[in-house]
Design a protein that fits this description.
Length: 195
């Protein structure tokens, strides 16, 4: 009986080895959370955050994973830092209490609750976005998710881009509505090396 149990345990080892979660740390130089919002019903204005950190993991066999992302709100840029003859630049205004209130809320976070797969790669992630101290559910779809080798250090590396939408008013950001749109289109370009 002991021999049979031992044989079963040994046979299960390769299966257990295959069903392991792989963890990746985001490369801050190649991770760009950015957004787009309608301005005066005319154009779509773009902005991005230059500093984001976090981790993601996935298990191909178990079809599970996780995402933990933290974005520094003060790193916001829309390409308008020069106030000129105005009281302040657009970026200064967006960092103020009217919008992102970076002094009181230095980070935006996203923590996953579920990862969905298409084949052996993640295709979508659901989780909670915390902005201005308010947490709301948010879904992101991976338009692209690929893995390969980092050409410099030869480590396994995965990346892609995830898209989603939120309403800023849901988080209490109501300044300039409706002149500046309520719906925010999100695009998170990311890369990470395997831990």
């Amino acid at each position: 009986m002991k021999k049979h149990l031992f044989a079963l345990a040994v046979a299960a080892l390769p299966l257990a080895a295959m069903a392991q979660s792989e963890s990746y740390t985001l490369d801050t130089y190649h991770t760009y959370p950015n957004f787009m919002v309608e301005h005066w019903g005319l154009s779509m204005m773009h902005g991005q955050f230059g500093k984001a950190t976090g981790k993601f993991s996935f298990d191909k066999a178990a079809k599970s994973g996780s995402v933990d992302l933290s974005i520094e709100t003060a790193s916001l840029s829309t390409g308008d830092n020069d106030k000129g003859s105005r009281p302040r630049s657009r970026d200064e205004h967006l960092r103020s209490a009217d919008f992102f209130n970076v002094a009181e809320f230095p980070r935006i976070t996203f923590k996953s609750t579920k990862v969905t797969f298409a084949g052996d790669m993640p295709s979508a992630v659901e989780g909670n976005l915390t902005l201005l101290g308010v947490s709301k559910p948010m879904s992101l779809t991976f338009e692209r998710f690929k893995c390969g080798a980092n050409p410099f250090n030869k480590k396994a590396r995965c990346g892609g881009n995830a898209v989603g939408k939120i309403k800023r008013s849901d988080f209490g950001m109501k300044a300039a509505l409706p002149a500046v749109g309520d719906e925010i289109a999100l695009n998170i370009e990311f890369e990470g090396d395997k831990d």
